[in-house]
Amino acid sequence: MPIPEDVTGDEIDKDVRQELQSLPKTLAEDVAKNLVMVARLIDEDPEGAYGYSKVALRLASRVAAVREAAGFAAYANQKYGEALAEFRAARRMTGTVDLWPVMADCERGLGRPEKALDMAGAPEVHKLDKAGQVEMRLVAAGARRDMGQLDAAIVTLQSPELASNSVQPWTARLRYAYADALLAAGREREAREWFAKAVEADRDGSTDASDRLAELDGVEFVDALSEDAEDTEDGADAAGESAEAAPEDGDKD
Asked: What is the DSSP letter of 228?
């Protein structure tokens, strides 16, 4: 797959660069460039990111960072079985537990919420950092919802992190998930309160909390472009009707 000229491979994280040092220099550069493309495209063009991840995987399947990137690319394309296999491979290579929450979420994607809940109660969770533990809580709550256990999902999300007034990278998503669970349970007033709190914490627009809040407040959004187009069409129709109604010069007395 083509690599843009502005991609050098130096953009990758230093830890990944260090992993690639086990490869011949030219090969390491090629792999690095493909990993950069995966990171660049994964949000806006997940299919494209997946293609680059497959190239990197073909070049260096024994590098943990490559297996992890391939896992996230597959995950972004809802290829949960493939993603889980790659994450497991990366975990075997590194021995770390960082991927535990996303592995559990893959189990959800494969229709196995019970397995995700088992993973949420495993000893590995205690080895996660705070962000990882919050992510695991979100996955566990999602698994509860998959099983129709709304009240249990709500309780799962209730935590010191949810109650805290400090804003962390996970705060908006945690508040959003809680609000969404409350709304699904018919607790609209509380849901509105938590969607509003999610908006306060969502500084980079990672959720659509503001839209959900507006919907609860009965605000309707109108597409300005469509409205302008309709106004133009209405104006043209009106002009046409006026022209038809106007008498020709020869008809004037």
From this structure: H
Query: CA 130: distance to chain centroid?
Result: 19
Structure tokens at 66: 């490559």
With contact defined as beta carbons under 8 Å apart, do 139 and 117 qualify? no
Judged against a pLDDT cut of 90, whether residue 222 lies above it is answered with no
Is pLDDT of 228 > 60? no
Contact between 49 and 37 (Cβ < 8 Å): yes
Q: Is the pLDDT of residue 4 over 70?
A: yes
Can you tell me the distance from the alpha carbon of 127 to that of 100, in angstroms, rounded to the nearest whole number? 10
Q: How many CB atoms lie within 10 A of CB 217?
A: 10
What is the structure's pLDDT at 1?
86
Say how far apart CA 193 and CA 19 lie, in whole Å.
46
Mean pLDDT of the chain: 89
> Which two three-digit tokens encode residue 45?
């063009």
Question: Does the predicted model carry a pTM greater than 0.85?
Answer: no
C-beta atoms surrounding 54 within 10 Å: 16
Neighbours of 141 (CB within 10 A): 25
